[in-house]
Amino acid sequence: MEQDRCIPKLVEFFSYTEDVLTTILASISVLFCLLTILIVSVFISFWETPIAKANNRNLSFILLVSIMLSFLCVFLFLGRPVNITCILRQISFAIIFSVAVSTVLAKTIMVYIAFKATKPNSVWKKWIGVKLSNTIVLFFSSVQVTISIIWLTISPPFQETDTYSYIGKIIIQCNEGSVIAFYSVLGYLGILAAVSFIAAYLSRTLPDSFNEAKYITFSMLVFCTVWIAMIPAYLSTKGKYMVAVEVFAILASNAGLLGCIFFPKCYIMIFRPEINTKAYLLNRL
Asked: What is the 3-state secondary structure (H, E, C) of 192-217?
């Protein structure tokens, strides 16, 4: 057989113009981002109501902003990869998610402390306040920031071309650089999520008036389930479908946090204002 011409290979990546899946994932991300903004506006409108105060407004606001940024970071995974997006996609994902999960953990801890502080002469009263909750979020998030800095220092992610996985295709993708660092980031998120789930599960039987623990338990159950299911799917795929699996996990886990934690509150604020009163909450204690 004569070899007298070159046959161009198909270049594969998540193209905004040629890939329907890219449009679908981007549209879902925008939709959930707009939904998050709507929930933020609802919380701001009902900022002084008892249910907003009872569920730690500052932590709720931080969590909502983190969820919104997580939805937006999906766009770093779409389009043609270059070195800077390869770096930003994993680092932003790692840090934003660690802030979100750390906030969930802080909310759970504050629920427990608030319950303990209601008892007469309780020593827990001095721990109630914004300072402790912010310290929890900053501490646990800073661990992930440290891991990310070490990752960038030792072996940062970069763009590469894969010409061997598929015949007739050139896959433009991101190489994670240090595999150990990549799984360290995921592992730390897993530990944070597991701790948050256990803490929320143990606190679920506290009085329901000021208690988010039940909703947090469900949200972290969804979060952990999504990422546990994602690992084998991620390892068994190649090319752009690896990216699709990670993007789906980001969207699904964030949707779980948003739906389980904030939808019940928004429902009460908008449709059940009669139970969004201090008297009603105190009667439930």
From this structure: HHHHHHHHHHHCCCCCCCCCCHHHHH
